[in-house]
Amino acid sequence: MVVDRALNSPMACGGKVLCIYLILAHAVAASSATVNSISIYWGQNVYEGSLAKACRTGRYAMVLMAFLSVFGSGQTPALNFAGHCNPSSGDCADLRYDIIDCQSMGVKVLLSLGGGAGSYGLSSTSDAEGLATYLWDNFLGGSGKTSLRPFGDAVLDGIDLDITNSSSSHYDDLAHNLTSLYKGDKGGRRYLLTAAPQCPYPDASLGPALATGLFDHVWVQFYNNPSCQYDPGNVGNLKSAWDQWAQALPSASVFLGLPASSDAAESGYIDPQVLVSQVLPVVNRSTNYGGIMLWSRLYDEASGYSMQFTIKGTNASDPPSGSLIPGGSGNAPLANSPTSPGNAPLANSLPTIFYDILPCFRIN
Ligand SMILES: *[C@@H]1O[C@H](CO)[C@@H](O)[C@H](O)[C@H]1NC(C)=O
Ligand SMILES: *[C@@H]1O[C@H](CO)[C@@H](O)[C@H](O)[C@H]1NC(C)=O
Ligand SMILES: *[C@@H]1O[C@H](CO)[C@@H](O)[C@H](O)[C@H]1NC(C)=O
Ligand SMILES: *[C@@H]1O[C@H](CO)[C@@H](O)[C@H](O)[C@H]1NC(C)=O
Questions:
Q1: For position 50, which CATH number holds?
Q2: Which range, of 18-22, 40-44, 71-75, 252-256, averages the lowest pLDDT?
Q3: Does any domain span residue 157?
Q4: Residue 284 C-alpha to ligand 4 middle, in angstroms?
Q5: What is the pLDDT of residues 59-82, one digit of tens each?
Q6: 1 within a domain of the structure (yes/no)
Q7: Is residue 238 part of a domain?
Q8: How far, in Å, is the centroid of ligand 1 from the Cα of 56?
Q9: Ligand 3 centre from 129 Cα, in Å?
């Protein structure tokens, strides 16, 4: 299981610019609580809609394409985007347009390695080196001669590690090797290295990699782990784990990784209002608090979780889809999704004001 989060950068509204804040909903009092930024995992269920559509909501600073689920130990690396497209027949190539679209809206798009299923593991230093080069040539700034570049000339913004199989070998090498390749980019472009450890500290799979201090953003999964996640009414376990993570990663921004609905994980779901009143005030004391990560776009689309917050610094270019507007006609197609039975539309149960930020318009 994976979680994800977001990033932030202030929305530029300088000069003769008119910013329109559209108040979409209604309802009672609310938290117009602000979240620094939100990152989100996309790619494991076709019912979540396209990558570009996710970016167009303007709610996410970073989208993690899930997953490169086969790699290492002599295996040919393989992508898996569930029902979105079939990598082996080449029909994921059109994702290049979505990636470019997302980036033009200011959303960073990363490729996530690992996931809860698949077959992966690094067997040696040279295995790590080989994978780093493969990733650089196929998805980032490199251009190996034999490179197939699944997304053509689209250049991703970085690599995310969601390693869950408790074998931590050589991911520290991978982090070192990716970082050196990043630094060699001819155009001086900047790439990100991110990771999604689980909340028990240190992480069984990513501990040594994270100890390199080379990661930009780390989204810690505070779910499916009762020992360190939020316990209804008691933020103590989460707080102790959070403080450990935030202190251990001074050079990274640390995100609170959460399920985007109660169906998105076995445990660890936090109601948005509880998040705002009990949890955010605890985690945002850390100077390296970065925002929240959500697993996943599928669940966020259905629940409207991310819509409960004002998000600092994202470009919102589209109003949210009609199905998510409270009082609207309900949250469509998820309920029929085979992997997420019985998703209840959160939006209708939460008395909250929904803000969405439309782009700024020049008025001169
Ligand atoms: C918003 O989008 C513009 C390009 O349209 C980009 O230059 C800018 O960095 C983006 N801002 C944020 C906060 O993502
Ligand atoms: C986990 O990693 C180990 C070490 O590389 C590997 O042997 C094993 O097959 C991996 N398991 C899965 C499910 O990928
Ligand atoms: C990869 O990283 C390891 C250290 O973890 C280092 O020994 C090796 O030289 C690196 N390889 C390259 C090609 O940078
Ligand atoms: C921390 O979160 C609380 C609750 O959402 C908010 O009121 C406060 O302004 C936040 N502080 C910072 C520094 O973000």
A1: 3.20.20.80
A2: 18-22
A3: yes
A4: 6
A5: 999 999 999 999 999 999 999 999
A6: no
A7: yes
A8: 12
A9: 7
* CA neighbor of 150 nearest in space, from 87, 227, 204, 198: 87
- Can you give the residue range of the structural domain that contains 219? 17-362
Q: Would you say residue 140 has pLDDT above 70? A: yes
State mean pLDDT over 1-27. Answer: 34
Of the CA atoms within 13 Å of residue 125, those in its CB half-sphere come to: 1
Q: Is the CB of 121 under 6 A from ligand 2?
A: yes
What's the chain's Rg over C-alpha atoms?
A: 20
| Residue 24 included in any domain | yes
Instruction: Report the C-alpha gap between 236 and 278 in whole angstroms.
Output: 10
Residues 6+ apart with CB under 8 A from 90: none
215-229, 247-261, 312-326: the lowest-pLDDT one:
312-326
> 11 alpha carbon to ligand 1 midpoint, in Å?
8
Q: Which ligand is nearest to the CA of 291?
A: 4
The tally of domains found in the chain comes to 1
Residue 177 phi/psi, 5° resolution? -70, -40
The percentage of the chain sitting over the pLDDT mark of 90, rounded to a whole number, equals 71
- What mean pLDDT is reported for the chain? 81
Does the Cβ of 124 fall within 6 Å of ligand 2?
no
**Among 280, 287, 310, 311, which residue has the most ligand 4 atoms within 8 Å of its CB, making it the best to mutate?**
280
